[in-house]
Amino acid sequence: MGIFRKRRDADSIRDQYEKHGYFDLNSNELNKFIKLLSEEDDAVSPKLTNLSPGEGDRNIRLLPPANQKSIYLKVIDKFILSQQAQLEPEEQLVKNGYFDMTKQIAFNFMKFLGKEGIRLPPISPLAVDGIEMVRFNPHSDQIEKIKQALEKFKNPLQLIKLKRILRKKPMNWNLLQILQLLIRLKRKMLHLLMKHLLRI
After folding, report:
1. SS (H, E, C) 79-148
2. Distance between CA atoms of 71 and 33, rounded to whole angstroms?
3. Mean pLDDT across the stretch 43-67?
4. Strands 131-136 and 123-128
5. Distances (CA, A) of 110 to 90, 117, 145, 149
6. For the chain, percent helix, then strand, then coil, each to nearest 5?
7. Residues 78-93: pLDDT tens digits?
8. Sequence-distant (≥ 6) Cβ neighbours of residue 76 within 8 angstroms
9. pTM across the whole model
10. How do the domains of the chain map onto residue ranges?
11. Same fold for the pair 12-84 and 89-153
12. Staple 142 to which of 20, 94, 138, 190, CB 3.0 to 4.6 Å?
C-alpha cells in the first residue's frame, strides 16, 4: 500500500509530520505522546487511524488538525527528547547517527574536540521546553572518532589513571594483580587495558 510511509525511529516522526501532515506511533509511544500532549494543551486531540498489521509495529496514525501544527511540533520535540534522554550520547550516536547535549556540556565538548585536534561535526541548536540543546550530526567518516572522543570526554580521570598504570609496563604482574586492577577500573576502560596487556 503505497500511501503508507513507514518511519524508522522516534525522531523521524517530525520529518514524517512535516512532509505528510501525519505520523505513525506504536501503542506504547502513543500513550507517552498523548500524555505529553495533554500536559501541553488538554483540549487538543488528534484523529487516530489504525493501520493494517502489515505496516509493522507502528500501526497507529495520528492526523492532527492543520491549525494545531505548532503545538504538535512542540510536543513532537518533547517526545523525541524524552526518548533520547534514556540513551547516553554515544548510544544515541550508534542508534541514530547523531546525539544531543545540553548547551553547556556541548560547549565543553566542542572545546575538548579542539584540544584533541578532532574536526567539529555539523551542529544545530535545539530548544525544547525551555532547555537549550545542541545536536551533533557527524559525517559518516567521523562517527568512530567522535564516539571515542565521547568516551574520553566522559571519563578523563579514568584515562589519566589508566595511562599512568600503563606507563609502568606491568610485565611481572600476576593474574590476581591484573584482576584487582580490572575490578577497580570502569568497564568502559577495560578494552584499553586489555589491548595494552596483549601487546606486552
Report:
1. HHHHHHCCCCHHHHHHHHCCEEEEHHHHHHHHHHHHHHCCCCCCEEEEEECCEEEEEECCCCCCHHHHHH
2. 12
3. 68
4. antiparallel
5. 15, 11, 14, 10
6. 55, 15, 30
7. 887 777 666 788 888 8
8. 13, 14, 17, 23
9. 0.47
10. 12-84, 89-153, 156-199
11. yes
12. 138
User: From residue 35, how far is each of 31, 38, 143 by CA, in Å?
Assistant: 6, 5, 34
Q: Do the Cβ atoms of 133 and 100 come closer than 8 Å?
A: yes
Helix or strand run (H / E) with residue 149: helix 143-154
pLDDT band at 7 (very low <50, low <70, confident <90, very high): very low
Q: Which of 28-37, 40-49, 54-63, 100-109 has the highest mean pLDDT?
A: 100-109
Q: What are the residues whose beta carbons fall under 8 Å from the beta carbon of 19, sequence distance 6 or more?
A: none
Q: Domain 89-153 class? A: alpha beta
Question: pLDDT per residue over 147-169, tens digit each?
Answer: 989 988 887 656 556 566 656 65
On whether the CB atoms of residues 73 and 14 are closer than 8 A, the answer is: yes
C-alpha cell at 149: 572522543
C-alpha to C-alpha distance for 24 and 12, rounded to whole angstroms: 10
* Closest to 140 in 3D by CA, of 94, 90, 106: 94
Q: Is pLDDT at 125 greater than 80 in this prediction?
A: yes
- For strands 23-25 and 60-63, give the pairing: antiparallel
Topology of the domain comprising 12-84: Alpha-Beta Plaits (3.30.70)
